[in-house]
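Problem 12. The chain below contains 589 residues. Write out its predicted structure in token notation.
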Amino acid sequence: MAQRNTYYQDENISTKIDFKQFGRTLRYILPFKKIFNIVCILMFVSAVASMIPPLLLRRIINKTVYDKNMQEFLFIIAGMAVLTGIQIAITYFQQTLMGKLGHNVIADIRQDIFYRLQQLPFDYFDSRPDGKIVVRVTEYVNELANFFSNYVLQFLVYIVMIVVSTVFMLSISPRLTLVVFCSVVPMMICVLLLRSRLKPMFSRLRAKNSNRSAYIVESLMGEKIIKNCNRADTNLHTYAEIHGKCLRQWQTIFALNEVNTPIVEIFWNAGTIAMFGVALASILAGKGNIIDAGTVVAFTSYMGLFSGPLTQIAVLIQQLSQVTSDLEQVFDTIDYPVTIADSPDAVTLKDVKGQVDFNDVTFSYEPGINILEHFDLHVRPGETIALVGPTGAGKTTVINMLTRFYDVQKGTVCIDGIDVRNTALSSLRREVGVLMQDPFIFKGSIMENIRYGRPGATDEECIAAAKKIRADVCITKFTDGYNHMLDERGAGLSAGEKQLLSFTRIILKNPSVIILDEATSSIDTETEMLIQKALDILIKDKTAFVVAHRLSTIRNADRILYIANKTIAEQGTHEELMAKHGLYYELNV
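Solution.
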């Protein structure tokens, strides 16, 4: 298990533009290349259309006004209005098509990252706070959606505008084009230098925001404990510190970012003055080199059409750095190795008898820190095994390996003689049912929650499963019974009611091997008696593993294993272990 990154540790977020990450998005874009080609054509038409109004304005200033030709003036104004309408229409279709393209691309990325999260081993989640995983799946992907829907289009538009405006300027006046370049290029260099300073700052801000999100999620999940332990004020100070780092980072960025405006204005005004100076010099020089007023006014427009995209490209370069970081984080999740997966020759478990064997198993969550060493356990079909021992001794680890939540480093874990690593995961987890201490109830109806582990079950089978442990007594108190809608995590249900639903779910699933991991620790005595009666029926002729502290839950087990010092320290029936006066005896006196 990798070292856990927490809410006070910044993630390693890249500040460089990695075009390999953009290259990977091509496989998402290629299915929509027709849309992309149409957008490119529309961009070129729009760019050419935007170059014509300055020429018409030049005509008005140099000729139409002097000739007092009202008809031509109205005709030109009408032409400019038509061109404006064309640009508006093209822009609308551009944005609509690019929005469709962008959101289709992001929809595929969203699906891939969510599907990968369903496949990832538990060590991925062990090494990251839930909040930072949520940020990757939501915030980072949302920013990618915005980029592919808007910024990609803008970037392409700006490139086309720069090329087309350069061609038009050179065809009208190379001298004024040189003036524009001499003012705009230094401006571009200054803006790029400014953005290069901002890039690492934005990356640090994103890391701080990720920390803040992680702390918020942790606080929401532990809300009851926070209130019960009177930690609200303390947590407020912690949040203020984390949020303060975000705020200070943003204020630094904001202050530096504001320098962008005076840089642009200085060079813009200098360029405008220089153009008028060159025009005046040409008039004074005469001899056919005169630059007329209309040309100067047209070039003022062209300088805006040329410098605006250049300035925005500098901003987009910074955005590219951020998007690269987003892609890196998203693809890090998508590329994370799925170590717990079906082998090429995976065997589907059928007619499982329930023989379980741990053969010389060694396991560790972190390299060099073994939880179990040379662990041997052989369980007969239909045998009930209780696991007891100190916290952290490896009781839950034993069942984690049986369910393949984690894989062993050495040795084998087998069901009916088949290594669980060679079984199809779907069949393994169908045949091994797990009941946790803290049952998870999904948002939906009671019937849907009962049916969760066996989607094809009929309503009658679900009701029969509930009646087996008398869970129907709790269910029928709701006016809409089994159709009653439950909130997220079963809010409004007692701990016992939640556990009853989870037990009903496992009874309906009817696995061959049953695991109870502290499954009755949060249940009142009366509810436990109901469940114990149901379990007696459920585990009859089935293999069962019980991790529990309550003596009433484990004393009737066929074998009790005391796990300590990375192995089985003691084993036997309750009576046999009590007679030894060993570790198990000390646990019960």
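Discussion. The two ends are 36 Å apart (CA to CA). Students who got a different answer should revisit the alignment rule from Section 12.3.
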